[in-house]
Amino acid sequence: MDIHDLTVFAAAARHGSVTRAAQSLSTVQSNVTTRIRLLESELEVQLFHRNHRGITLTEKGERLLPYAQQMLSLIENAKAAVSDSRDVRGTLQIGSLQSTASARLPDLLKTYASRHAQVDINVVTGTSGELLEKVLASRLDGAFVTGVEDHSDLDVVTSFVEELVVITPAPYRTMRAYLKEGSLPKLLVFKVGCHYRQRLERYLGAEGTTVFSPMEFGTIDGIIGCVAAGLGISLLPRSVIERSARRKEVSIHQLPKPYRYVETQFVTHKAQVRSLALTRLLDVVVGERGKAGR
Fold it and tell me: First-to-last CA distance in the chain?
């Protein structure tokens, strides 16, 4: 086992595809396949399941991945320690809620890129539940999520504080007016695992509306568009939907204090060795939080 084998293995695990792994490494597919098979032969285990959709890690592959990623991070850190260059290099795999990617990440990543232009950043979006699983499985270096309380395997840094609001079709000036319509509100939400969805359900439950009819979406634009079309209501950060509200496509409704604010947190795996690129990203996250607090 050498560093080249582990680099190929980690890339294949990250992309779930030999083709995409080869592209990311600027090599040919046959080289990726050969490296993986040699590693499997050396370890005498199968690391990937192969199917027509791509490749997925076996149980043994899942066990190996955190060690491979830590070794790669250590090597990058060692190179940086002895290098005369001040440039931070490497690749970051970052997870983010769609709302955070839309409203908050552009400024944060602009700041980061201006300081560390040699770092390649890949952003994956999903629900908090999905992203937490990927961080814990070492498939992501870190992720912006919500709703994380004490977790023995995670380091958690508060990044942003968001005000959450309910949005309804534009004609409704109050939530009470909407709920007086008589029919159960159709909830336009992300899939199960979304913290915003959970909070909307709790809020409506406290208002006495206990039966829900969710319509699941994969994008924020889809949710806002369908609320504007009169199909239902949703709950999102104010920072995401203010533009739509200004265009009078939807109406914004303030929530009571127990439901109004939520922290967006940046989480990393405690057991994973932090690359210099990730350490510098955390510096930016903390710095941007400090600006917001002033």
Answer: 50
Q: Which pair of structure tokens corresponds to residue 184?
A: 């159960």
| C-alpha to C-alpha distance for 259 and 279, rounded to whole angstroms | 32
- The Cα 216–Cα 161 span in angstroms is 25
- What are the b/e assignments for 281-293, b being 16+ CB within 10 Å? bbebbeebbeeee
| CA 264 – CA 205 distance, rounded (Å) | 24
The sign of the torsion formed by the CA atoms of 30, 33, 76, 133 equals: positive
pLDDT at 105: 93
Residue 17 burial (10 A CB sphere; 0-12, 13-18, 19+): middle
Q: Which residue has the tokens 């080289």?
A: 31
Whether the Cβ atoms of residue 193 and residue 148 lie closer than 8 Å to each other:
no
The burial of 263, by beta-carbon neighbours within 10 Å (0-12 exposed, 13-18 middle, 19 or more buried), is given as middle
What is the pTM (predicted TM-score) of this model? 0.78
Report the SS3 class of residue 25. coil
Per the structure block, which two tokens stand in for 221?
């634009």
How many Å apart are CA 278 and CA 264, to the nearest integer?
18
Segment-wise mean pLDDT, segments of 10 residues, the chain, 294 residues? 90 90 92 94 94 89 88 82 74 91 92 91 92 88 90 92 92 79 78 88 82 82 91 91 82 91 94 86 84 52
Q: What angle do CA 26, 27, 32 make, to 5 degrees?
A: 125
Angstrom CA distances, 158 to 95, 148, 223, 228, 266, stand at: 15, 10, 26, 32, 6
Strand runs (DSSP E) across the chain, as ranges?
A: 48-51, 54-57, 90-96, 119-125, 142-146, 154-169, 186-189, 213-216, 234-237, 250-254, 261-269
